[in-house]
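Students often ask why we bother encoding 3D structure as a string. The short answer is that it lets us treat folding as translation between two languages. Here is a chain of 332 residues written in the first language.
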Amino acid sequence: MIKTAESVSLGHPDKTADYITSYILDRLIEQDENVRYGVEVMVKDQTIVLGGEVGGNVLLSKLEEYVKQAIREVGYDEKYATVWGSKALNINKIKVINLINRQSAEIYQGVEKDGWGDQGVFVGYAAQGAGNINRELYLARTLNKALYEKARQSDNLGLDIKTQITLDDDKILTVVVAIPMLKTEDLTDFVCNVLGQKPQNLIINGTGSYTVHSAVADCGITGRKLACDFYSTAAPIGGGSPWTKDATKADLTLNLYARYLAVENLADNDEVWVYLSSCIGQCYLPSAVMKWRKGNLLGEKALEIEARPSVLIKRFGLHKPVYAKLCREGLV
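And here it is in the second language, the structure alphabet:
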């Protein structure tokens, strides 16, 4: 069976936007672990737009400092600006536009009663194999991470990286890589070594050249890489972006919990899917269902679980500044 999955690096403008909002949330949690937060980010050229709602005992006076430090952590620091100049996001030219206001009092009162901050549906997935995820996605992520780490140490390779893997059962049919290069560099051996086999077809920078990148070549917006963040085509996408909200909103918390339940029930199965739903202002889940595949056999059952926000937030440590780390490393 032919399957394909894609992965993108933190240097991709959409993921840079995800990382900026996650980094800001960490800094606000350091001020108030009960902060309520929902902030989207758009990155275009050298302008960063912040829009959303925040509530809690926090100060927003250092937002520009937080944005710039997040960008440095991605790798677009002063040294990178010296090498790439106007061809990429430039830390020396950043302008921040702040469109953040206070969270709705009506949402706040529901959350304070230990209810979820939004309604939604959430999906967890697990499969036998490395990382307990589908192999094509595991390989795409592994290659992307290796190329990103290589680029962080290079004066020739850029950070805005995409990798795509197509498998036919265990055989790698096609590998597609997009990675900025100032000068053409042969990465064939590197890619083959990382993947452990030579693909039937390897395409590096399909247009022939790739220099202008990041927010200069593309507009980055939070939440546009959900298929990469979650499970590619192996499972439906549950909820919205997990990187733009505090843990009461459920897009991170219940997706993490669904993944946890899927892995917990994987031992005797080949694949497991867990589907959860939430109701704004309420602590109970309207639905909780697990489906599984073992060989050619399929099964399904309703789950009886405790999913109170306060319990899950503490279980996963989401009252602490862990959001940038989760965004960097992924949900799985």
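Translate back mentally: The CA atoms of residues 96 and 181 lie 28 Å apart. Keep this in mind for the problem set.
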